Amino acid sequence: MNLLRSEWTKFRGLRSTWITATVTVLAAVGVGLLAASGQARQYTPDTEDWDPTAVSLTSLFVGQLAIGVLGVLAMSGEYATGQIQPSVVAVPRRGRLLAAKAGVFAVVALVIGQVIGFVSFFGGQALIAAAGVPHASIGEPGVVRAVLGCGLYLAVLGLIGLGLATALRSTAGAIGTLVGITLLVRAVSRALPESWAEWMERYWPTAAGERITHVLTPAGVLTPWAGFAILCAFGAVVGVAGYTLLRVRDT
Amino acid sequence: MASLGGMSDTIEATGLTKRYGDRLAVDGLTFTVEPGRVTGFLGPNGAGKSTTMRLVLGLDAPTAGTVTVCGRRYPDLPRPLHTVGALLDAHAVHPGRTAVSHLLALAQTAGLGRGRVEEVLGLVGLANVAGRRVGTFSLGMAQRLGIAGALLGDPPVLMFDEPVNGLDPEGIRWVRTFMRGLAAEGRTVLVSSHLMSEMALTAHHLLVIGRGRLIADTGIDEFLREHGDEAVLVRAGEQDRLARVLRRTGAELSAHDDGLLVRGLTAGDVGKLAAGEGIALEELSARRRSLEDVFMALTGDAVEYGVEYGVGA
């Protein structure tokens, strides 16, 4: 409890944290709304697999990077400034230090993620409805799960950012890796032979994890929770790697 | 002041060794830092002082040997902040936080609150800048902030790495008095410095290291007596006659400027002998080989090493 209180003091004591958090929400919601109005305009009755919920939650495309950066900064800030030294002196059991930091950040990221999810959904559906295109309402089957799932997905991405920063200790390295994981690998995999590309679209952690924000589950993709489980497993691997390095390494 | 029941508040190193790549930073150090006095940890830059302190705090793991505080490895201490207070690098602070916020985050790990933070800020004279961002602090203020952090848990053992670096003369005097005050309260105080003159004014006991090895572990007075090599400088009109008188006592004489440097007699002896012979003295002063000289002689080897390989602090 003491450690959680300490980490919360650290988190809220930085202006950069609040700026990054605000930018995360604004950028993600903004992109979500743009995507909703854009795709609503392109909608024709022939559009296959029209999933207005998932369309409005496109916000996670940008949101995942921004919240991942927030997670990176929560840990890499300690290394970049040397703050890690007094932090580890105060809490020499480094696993507990990491757990407290991750715990506080998980709550913050979840709140930010849910704000993004719900604002994007309601704003997006309003735009889609205004365009006279079929839209979703929160009471329909699977919709609440998808909207909540958007926040969950973003929280896990934030934690992956924190884990990467713990393992790599450098802001630039961690953000670079994060961009690779979320955007580059998927972009490159589309250029691969079709069978490989399909496999990547199904099982690559962020691709699989995204399924939780979709109401429709077309043939050939994982179910929402199965996909999300793959993302969580990936996050756990990153977390364990960070924890192990933090424990064995000289500070 | 908190203390672990029954355990003496010492820092004990046994065969402590740390290797970074192929560089041996700390080489088989064995020492005990005792409570109730300021122990000066003296050595040139790159001698291994900071590394040793990092090993004490568990920041780095020793390659061989052990070091304990109050009988335990630092990471095994149940209440680290209440046992050891340390300032290694005043700049190792997130510049974006206010002084209060920084200290509060540290205090909370030990279950302490804002009240204690305000107390220590008062103790180090930073109460009026408590709400300022640490990034705007001068080095002197950052040092004080670091000392405040070390005091949070009112620990029986304190460790400061070059605490007077970057301080103005007033700040230096403040730190000096403060360290001695902490020791007078019965605490164990280990202070590192590369300045012999600083240690002469602050420390009661010395651990001298060079090239990662322990060169001396001794009281500062013994250290001076052993290495200080006292001499007396005397000047007189009838210098040749004075020299004959002094030589009769078996004293060793050498020319120094236009006077005589006398070894083997005290200034009082020289004065009495001169008076007995009716020789008027123009100058009579006790000369000590400076501590810096002694230090350089002892660690000269290590200093060369530092320059040659560009080893940092």
Number of β-strand runs of chain A: 0
Helix/strand class of chain B: alpha/beta
Per DSSP, what share of the residues of chain B sits in E-state strands of 2 or more residues?
Answer: 25-35%
The CATH superfamily name of the largest domain in chain B is P-loop containing nucleotide triphosphate hydrolases
Compute the average pLDDT of chain B. 87
Task: Give the tally of structural domains of chain A.
Answer: 1
Which H/E pattern describes the elements of chain B?
EEEHEHEHHHEHEHEEHEHEEHEH
Query: What is the fold-level CATH name, i.e. the topology of the largest domain in chain B?
Result: Rossmann fold
Oligomer: heterodimer
What coarse outline of chain A follows from CA principal-axis ratios? globular
Q: How big a fraction of the residues of chain A is strand?
A: under 5%
The amount of helix of chain A comes to: over 70%
Q: How much is the radius of gyration of chain B in Å?
A: 24 Å
Radius of gyration of chain A: 19 Å
Fraction of residues in H or I helices of chain B: 25-40%
**What's the N-to-C terminus distance of chain A?**
24 Å
The biggest sheet of chain B amounts to: 6 strands, mixed
Q: Name the shape of chain B in a single word.
A: elongated
